[in-house]
Amino acid sequence: MIKLLFVSSTSACFEWQNDNPYYTENEYKIYLNGKEVLAGKTNVFSLFDLAPATSYVLTSDACESELTFETKNESCCVNVKDFFATGDGVTDDTRAVQTAINNLPENGRLYFPEGTYVVSPLNLKSHITLELSEGAKLLGHPDKSKYPAIPGIVSDMVNNEDLHFGTWEGNAELMYQGLIFAAHAKDITIIGRGTVDGNAEEAGWWIDVKNYTVARPRLLFFNRCSDIHVHGITAKNAASWQLHPYFSNNIDFLDVEIQAPKDSPNTDAIDPEACDVVNIIGCRFSVGDDCIAIKSGKIDIGRTFKKPANRHTITNCLMQFGHGAVTLGSEMAGGVTNLTVNKCIFAHTDRGLRIKTRRGRGEDAIIDGVLFENIKMERVLCPIVINMYYNCCDPDKHSEYVWSREKLPVDERTPYLGKFTFRNMECQDCEGAACYCDGLPEQPIKEITVENIRFTYADDAQPFKCAMRDYLDPFCKVGMYFDNVGTLTVRNVTLEGVEGEELVASNIGTLIRE
Predict the structure, then answer these.
(1) Coil, helix or strand for 200?
(2) pLDDT over threshold 90, residue 8
(3) Cα–Cα distance measured from residue 86 to residue 96, given in angstroms and rounded to the nearest whole number
């Protein structure tokens, strides 16, 4: 069966319904109104260059059923070159592109034909579509002075309340505006086979990154927006995080490719922060930091807004390289709840699931309801990491309060980890350990279930420090390590090539092993 995931006025995204991670078992052909339009082998596929407000019948040689769908209506379509954008890769096209956006009527589409459009930050508005055709590229201007600064907090002169605008790593901070930017907007669609390129290396954004007094810009930044759909494009070379929805709702990233060099700093692919209902489906990642990092702010943001990252679905994605395939935190003081990761491939990432939290994130820092299933991992150094002693990104990161193994009081600063389920997974050529799960003695991880999982170890495995935690030695070919867990269930798990005990478990309330 084929499921329709998304349809715009000129594009549509589909998903094969099966249990295979990322790829179908066999290659298939797709026909539209009887004409062959696509051959593929991925579970998610897309069609572009469709006509608005038109009915189509989709069939495939791989199934007997047919799927009828209709593209959306639109008010108009405007070519950006009619507003005097050149697309020559040299001319600054910012004013032309922004003028076109400003003039686009509600439910209109702005079309970018093939060409390279050099732009500094663009401001989007509600109820519009940007379409980047194949061969079209939005290229970040290399002059940093063209990026406006956005304050972290501004006082409301009428209500005498703080208004939050800029952000960096979980705090309200002065930041440069993102290349593609929207605030307090809704119903924005970005589609096509074109590219948004932050041009960070040319601009020098990756040099001396620890000494910036203004936070580097994201590639796409959506602040307090809703109903945002990004379909088909390639995003690459951001100054920092690539796609960053912030306090936003109903966000789709579909069949998107995200790229950055392996050594590029902080180039996370997708970092939803304090968002509700985020779908990341059919995407491909190869970046210099975490592929997906789900966040909800540090303790001031968490206490102020109490807005968890909630109802996120990650399906049929291919994640290559990066520190973590799917990371939660470490800025998660508002909590992370109801996360499903399904039918993905993680290849050559340092970790598969990576949870980063620590004392000081606060009582609202609740992570609960996390499900990983039908996952294939290839040469992932440590497939499952849950770390409650994370020692990075805070002034007190190496303090005794963070690293102490003593049972400290549970108070308003103590985070909480609830239920985690990992099942139906194949993890090949691990190196450090199969699992490293480390709870607090005063606040153990409530429940972890690992079932129907096969771990194998690389013959040439090298020692690896599985978690960023003070006083932790590197592991090599270690089995499943658990400390401070309320209920631990290990069912139908095999480890091939492990050196030492398969299960290293201490301070476990209830252990079920089958």
Answers:
(1) helix
(2) yes
(3) 9
d(C-alpha 318, C-alpha 186), whole Å: 29
- Could you tell me where the beta strands, DSSP code E, fall in 151-218? 153-155, 162-164, 167-168, 171-172, 175-176, 180-183, 186-192, 195-197
Burial class (CB in 10 A: 0-12, 13-18, 19+), 286: buried
Label the pairing between strands 55-60 and 23-32: antiparallel
C-alpha span between 113 and 234 (Å, rounded): 15
The CA distances from residue 54 to 50, 59, 175, 187, 509, in Å, are: 8, 16, 43, 21, 59
Q: Is the pLDDT score of 322 beyond 90?
A: no
CA distance 99 to 94: 8
* Catalytic machinery residues: 289, 323
| pLDDT tens per residue, range 474-485 | 999 999 999 999
Do 488 and 508 form a contact (C-beta atoms < 8 A)?
Answer: yes
Burial class for 251, CB neighbours closer than 10 Å (0-12, 13-18, 19+): buried
Amino acid identity of residue 156, one-letter, is D
Domains, the chain, ranges and CATH? 2-70 (2.60.40.10), 76-467 (2.160.20.10)
Nearest CA among 238, 228, 264 for reference residue 139 = 238
Q: Render pLDDT for 165-214 as a digit per residue (tens, 0 to 9).
A: 999 999 999 999 999 999 999 999 999 999 999 999 999 999 999 999 99
Token pair belonging to 395: 């002034």
Phi-psi region of 369 (alpha: psi -120 to 50; beta: other; left: phi over 0): left
Any bridge partners for residue 430, and if so which?
457
Q: Does residue 488 surpass a pLDDT of 90?
A: yes
Residue 475 has which token pair?
Answer: 């592991």
CA distances from 441 to 195, 334, 385, 448, 509 (A): 48, 22, 17, 16, 11
**At residue 402, what are phi and psi to the nearest 5 degrees?**
-80, -45
> What letter would DSSP give residue 104?
P
The confidence score (pLDDT) of residue 37 equals 98
Q: How far apart are CA 464 and CA 382, in angstroms?
A: 8
